[in-house]
TrEMBL record:
Listed PANTHER family: IRON-REGULATED INNER MEMBRANE PROTEIN-RELATED, PEPSY DOMAIN-CONTAINING PROTEIN
Protein name: Peptidase
Keyword Phosphoprotein appears in the UniProt entry: no
Region ranges (Disordered): 274-302
Pfam families registered for this protein in UniProt: PepSY_TM
TM region positions: 39-61, 174-196, 232-252, 398-418, 439-458
Organism: Kocuria varians
This protein's record includes keyword Transmembrane helix: yes
Source species taxonomy: Bacteria, Bacillati, Actinomycetota, Actinomycetes, Micrococcales
Keyword annotations from UniProtKB, A to Z: Membrane, Transmembrane, Transmembrane helix
Domain of life: Bacteria
InterPro entries xref list: PepSY-ass_TM
Gly residues composition bias: residue spans: 275-284
Length: 493
């Protein structure tokens, strides 16, 4: 009974609001349509956005958290005569109790330790066993399970998975994709709503209030709305960036993005490891050494590598022009393939060049330079690095923290506005009314198929957007049916 009374009241208020309003022909249908879409998305998707924002803000500070939590494993001894890389790898092999070569080695830098990663069939896909070796003393400082080609430590892996799938595995990824899918819709619809509203008000102070918070406003609803609107307008570009870059990691939309990039030749180039040369080949692992999503891939277990000298291969790569401090050395899976050495400096300026080295003849068989990447591939690399807080260091992290906090403020203030619009004279506990229905009936008939085609196209490219939009429509139709039934019962009574 409460639900029926609530939505009957909402329908009555909607009708009265429609009678009072006489807007421009375009805004007559577009403004209420966007209001209703913005409302449903904010109310129903808001909790997912809050979780994604909080866990994402935590993730961008994992480099600092890792250095604090794993200080013993990550801190090495500075020595004028450090052990050779081959000796460090042998030390790690003895610690693991294997004669097999590692699948990835990250040499120590700036007083750190060398990270030697081994394949382990007992671990989950994408995981490897990492042994940390002090290059100054040869002491093993740590032994733990790491994730991805870059060897993300357990704390970062846990926070990353919490942000990506709530530790629920593949089904949990639907939550983060839903949040990223609707974030850009909320940002754009909010901007258009502000523009349309400003066209309907007089010039001067009233036309500027939507862009400036009013903390001194006596009316609680208007005060909250001023903060909600100003925050959304000034940070809309940041929200659009988070949505676009976040979707590239998603399960369904991300696959469509990858196919689009491949079709347009925007993919990240890879070094060829077949010892025949030529860019665009595979390194045998299924991911480019400079793959912008390498830390987040659920890849297959990597195979054991062919024997060779890590020191000699690294020196060959250095002579070929790899100058970044942070590099990764990936031995080949067989004698008939080359090793790869890749730079992994994703800050600005970005250094992610990679080379393929014949370990037997110590010659470079392929070289992929970041300067030669296509512009879309570079933009994708920078976007993902910025999304992870890596591109500009601490300033990048602080900007992401501000965006995450703003998302929480917007969601909470959205719920607060809905609550503060509730009828205060009613004895029953009620929420505020919904935005008016029937917006499309005011639109020109020729526009209906255009809107339908655009909606279907976007829904196919972003499947969760299309499915959830159908869910919103089903909820809306159900609420309308309840309201009509209640109104008919009241009329008969």
């Amino acid at each position: 009974m409460f639900v029926e009374r609530y939505f009957t009241m909402s329908t009555t208020l909607d009708a009265r609001a429609s009678e009072r309003a006489r807007p421009h022909p375009t805004t007559a249908w577009l403004l209420p349509l966007l209001r209703r879409l913005h409302f449903y998305a904010g109310i129903l998707v808001g909790p997912f956005l809050v979780v994604a924002a909080v866990t994402g803000a935590l993730y961008v500070f994992t480099p600092q958290l890792e250095r604090a939590v794993y200080a013993d494993a990550l801190t090495g001894t500075v020595s004028s005569q450090p052990l050779t890389l081959d000796r460090q790898v042998e030390t790690a092999q003895r610690a693991v109790g294997t004669s097999e070569s590692p699948v990835n080695v990250r040499p120590a830098i700036d007083g750190g330790t060398t990270r030697v990663m081994f394949a382990d069939p007992a671990l989950e896909a994408g995981e490897s066993r990492a042994v940390f070796v002090d290059p100054g003393t040869g002491r093993v400082t740590g032994d733990m399970t790491v994730y991805g080609t870059s060897g993300a430590l357990p704390l970062r892996t846990t926070i990353d998975r919490l942000h990506r799938d709530l530790l629920l595995g593949e089904p949990g990824r639907l939550y983060s994709e839903l949040a990223a899918t609707w974030l850009w819709v909320l940002a754009l619809s909010g901007l258009v709503l502000v523009v349309l509203h400003r066209r309907r008000v007089a010039r001067g102070r009233r036309a500027r209030v939507s862009l400036v918070p009013r903390p001194g406003e006596a009316n609680a609803y208007r005060r909250t709305r001023s903060w909600h609107t100003a925050t959304g307008v000034w940070l809309a570009v940041g929200f659009l960036f988070l949505s676009a870059s976040g979707l590239t990691w998603s399960a369904y939309a991300g696959e469509n993005v990858s196919q689009l990039r491949t079709a347009l030749s925007w993919s990240t180039p890879k070094v060829a490891t077949d010892l025949g040369g030529g860019s665009g080949g595979s390194d045998g692992s299924g991911a480019s050494p400079a793959d912008e999503h390498a830390e987040h891939h659920h890849g297959h277990h990597m195979a054991a590598a062919a024997p060779g000298s890590f020191d000699a291969v690294l020196e060959t790569a250095r002579q070929a022009g790899l100058e970044a401090q942070t590099v990764e050395i990936k031995p080949a899976a067989s004698d008939g393939a080359a090793w790869t050495v890749s730079e992994n400096e994703r800050s600005w300026p970005t250094q992610v060049d990679s080379v393929a080295v014949d370990p037997h003849h110590l010659r470079v068989t392929d070289h992929v330079r970041f300067s030669e990447w296509s512009l879309p591939a570079k933009l994708a690399q920078w976007a993902v690095a910025a999304h992870m807080g890596l591109l500009f260091g601490l300033p990048n992290q602080l900007v992401l923290l501000a965006l995450a906090a703003a998302i929480v403020v917007l969601v909470v203030s959205g719920y607060a506005m809905w609550w503060r619009r509730r009828p205060t004279r009613s004895a029953a506990a009620q929420l505020g009314p919904l935005p008016p229905r029937g917006a499309l009936r005011a639109a020109p008939p020729w526009l209906w198929p255009v809107l339908a085609l655009v909606t279907v196209a976007v829904g196919l490219f972003l499947p969760l957007l299309g499915i959830s939009l159908l869910g919103f429509l089903a909820v809306d139709l159900a609420l309308a049916a309840l309201a009509r039934r209640r109104t008919g019962a009241a009329a008969r009574g």
